[in-house]
Design brief:
With 177 residues, the protein is an alpha/beta fold. The protein has five helices and five strands.
């Protein structure tokens, strides 16, 4: 399974591609950051993020895209920018028919480190270990994107089984009604 992880942000949008399956060693295919100038007009920034994401999709051809689910913060401006960058990534993937999964920050941290309260350094250290890298990817947005991809690879099989079980239950329930 090849997954593009996206850690959305207007100034730095982390992107990372990981190959692998649950229970086997994972391989980093690529990691980076799509950057936009903080003083640029919002529309231009979103177009730059779109172009960057499209380039990653063209180059790496992921089967899935995992995006960090936007959560409420105290700074509404930051949340809005993150949500807008997130929407661009989801749109780019959906336009190509690539399934998109959203994962919360605590879900990603728990999957990668064992604790949903892990800090950025702990996430970076575990990403480095899991992908057998020489050093943690920098900036932290890049490491977070890889963590999203890892989380999806590890959690997707269980989520798919749950969805199939729910669908089967609904089908069975519909037949007996």
């Amino acid at each position: 399974m090849r997954v593009l992880g996206v850690d959305p942000g207007l100034t730095r949008c982390g992107v990372g591609v990981v190959d692998g399956v649950a229970g086997r060693p994972l391989t980093m295919i690529g990691v980076g950051v799509v950057r936009t100038p903080a003083d640029a007009e919002l529309g231009h920034r979103l177009v730059a993020i779109e172009r960057g994401i499209e380039e990653w999709l063209d180059t790496h051809r992921p089967e899935f895209v995992a995006v960090e689910r936007v959560f409420s913060q105290h700074n509404v401006r930051t949340v809005m920018g993150t949500a807008q960058a997130s929407a661009v990534a989801m749109l780019c993937a959906s336009r190509r028919g690539i399934p998109v999964a959203l994962h919360t920050p605590s879900e990603v941290k728990a999957a990668v480190t064992g604790s949903g309260r892990a800090d950025k350094d702990q996430v970076g250290a575990m990403v480095t270990r899991l992908l057998r890298l020489d050093a943690p990817p920098r900036p932290a947005d890049a490491a977070d994107a890889l963590a999203l991809a890892i989380c999806h690879i590890w959690r997707a099989p269980a989520q798919n089984r749950l969805q199939q079980a729910v669908a089967a239950h609904r089908t069975l329930k519909g037949r007996t009604a």
